[in-house]
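Pilot study result, target chain (319 residues):
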Amino acid sequence: MDIAVTGAAGYIGDLLADALLANDSPLNVASLLLVDTIEPRIRHDPRVRTLALDLTAPGAADQIVTSNRQILFHLAAVVSGHAEADFDLGLAVNFDVTRALLEAARKRANNMRFVFVSTVGVFGGDLPPVVLDYTAVTPQTSYGVGKAMSELLVNEYARRGFVDGLAVRLPTVSVRGGAANRAVTSFASGIIREPIRGECAVCPVDEDQRLWLCSPKTVVKNILHAGTLSSAQLDPWRVINLPGLTATVGEMVRALREVAGEEVASRVQFVKDEMIARMVASFPPEFETTRANRLGFIADRNFAEVIRIFIEEEAKKKC
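Predicted structure:
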């Protein structure tokens, strides 16, 4: 298959590229284009081509969506905190780029599977206790607005037969490796990652803040799985809430203490940031995912297991 990934220099995009190229990949990759604003990591694989590209530039979408492209995983985004600080850039990347890619597919690759990676941040405000796939989106952030508009566009292009589109809403991903980014939920990884690495971490929300979580390993499997589903398996509404697990920040720290010990857990400090706390509190902490489960998407068993996997991955890097 001829596949492309936008946002391939990001943490999840990089892991997705590795998973696509692995021997046990569920997709048979003949060629893989990795695209981001900076050049993605070089891989010594003849199937791979990397491209540094300003996705907002005129004609950029045409370099990604070619007539032989079969799957596009669209991960490129300006994350929540950055989109809130720079409205114009956030709208340009999170909505205008998505529209340009969809329109390019409409013109030359309308059988292409377009996997749009969205977010639970499309929800906000006064929500039911448990959010469904069909719960109305009411975003409370610029990031959520851009993603919600893009979801509607992906669904409409799929309905009209312009592209084989599917949007998957990611839970907050924890524990991410690498450095912190400008997402307001970045702390959900930082309060685990930094203490394990021997550093202190500041948590900007209260201990009782509930989060909908998923590990990097599981979220990459689910994004890949979205590329394997046939159109016949999908409902007319092409937007899916991915499975996750609900935990309070306090429960996350207790899991850290259970797995890594008191000395490590004591490195987490709580210093509330009102802006971040307000934005995070607008995100729903619990979802009903029967539809996703039926389609074969998966969830982590518990957060302690997520931490153990992260520690194992960190140990491998040192070898």
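One observation from the pilot: The longest strand covers residues 113-119. A full batch analysis is planned for the follow-on phase.
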